[in-house]
Design brief:
It contains 6 helices and no strands. Helix 1 runs antiparallel to helix 2, helix 1 packs across helix 4 and helix 2 crosses helix 5. The chain starts with a helix and ends with a helix. The mean pLDDT is 94.
Length: 98
Amino acid sequence: MKAMALADRLKEKDAYDIYYTLTNYPGGIEKVVEKFRPHIRHGLVREGLAKLAEHFGSVDAVGPAHVANFAEISDEEERDRVRRDAFEKIHYLLTQLG
């Protein structure tokens, strides 16, 4: 649902919420992957994952930038680190889900 909102509204909070969930979900990203797997063939799930891929397709994409913007990070090195972390977490999720 957050991926759909991210694509439709382009609010920085939506990107941050996705990143926050992947960072803090009990059991980590592997547990998120496990929860998604039974639903991976559902059309809306596939659509949401495609939207995530579109918005987090690179470190320089809008998704990672929105994460750093919402967190109000002004230090450039920290912004770069958070953007890289956001990209890598989403990329890992998408890779694991195929």
